[in-house]
Every structure is written in C-alpha cells, then in structure tokens.
Design brief:
This protein is mostly beta strands. It has one helix and twelve strands; from the N terminus they run ββββαββββββββ. The protein folds into two domains: about 1-45, no CATH class; about 75-140, OB fold (Dihydrolipoamide Acetyltransferase, E2P), CATH 2.40.50. A four-stranded antiparallel sheet has the order 1-2-3-4, with no helix packed on it. A four-stranded antiparallel sheet has the order 5-12-10-7, with no helix packed on it. The chain has one helix spanning about 60-65, and strands spanning about 1-10, 10-20, 25-30, 30-35, 75, 80-85, 95, 100-105, 110-115, 120-125, 130, 135-140. The radius of gyration is 36 Å and the shape is rod-shaped. A hairpin with a 2-residue loop joins strand 1 and strand 2 (about 10-20).
Amino acid sequence: MKKFSFTIRGNRYEVEIQQFENNIAEMEVNGSHYTVEVHEEVRPSKTPTILVRKEVPDPRRSEVKIRKTIGSALQMKSPLPGTVMQVLVKSGDNVKKGQKLLVYEAMKMENSILAERDGQITAVRVQPGDNVLEGDVLVEMS
C-alpha cells in the first residue's frame, strides 16, 4: 500500500503498510510482519478527491482577442430604480457632453442623467411620472 523510511535512534527502518482498517494496521518492517494498533485518530481529508478541480489550460490566442462592436447609437440607462420627474430634451435635440437630459427621483434623492458625449437625441423612452427599473433605457442618442 504505502512505503515509508524511518530512522529511530540511528537505526533505519523500511516500513510498508499493507492494510489499514479502523485503528489496526498490518505492516512489514525490514521484512518482519507486524499488526499494530494506532492510538491517534487518523482524520480523512475534508475535500474528496473527486471534487478537486482540474487545472484549466491557458486560452488559445484566438480566444484572448477582445472584439469591440462600434455603433453610433448610445443608450442612456437608469442606474437605479426610481420615478422620472423631468425630461429636459426631445427627439432631434443636439446636446453637448455633460448636459442634463432628465431628472429622476431614486432613493428619495433627485438624480440627473447627463449626456456622456456630444450628439443628437434620437429617442426619449420615458415621460415625467414614469417608474423605471435599474438598466431601463431612458434616452437614446447618436
């Protein structure tokens, strides 16, 4: 089963454990057979070897490439659930980066949605009084 080499008081012993059940071990020490009782509890591993994950191979070069899709439309989404209070733009308006597009209430606070870049408003998806969820599209611009 398992082989060990021990040195006790300067003497070397070759030990082969042949069988181990409960606290009784059958072993061969330097060619002589012994049956011994183990007094200390042998604790098994908490993680079964079946559940140990295999090493993940490195990705191939083709899998590492990041593909960026470039689109002209930009969607301004709600960062938090809330209620739209004011819409300050309409479809066709030209806006500058940082310009306030709408105001909505979320978590008892007024929040402003600002333009992320210069562009033209292509669609306004909400009206004052609308309830919006996190991630809902509020305004689209190009």
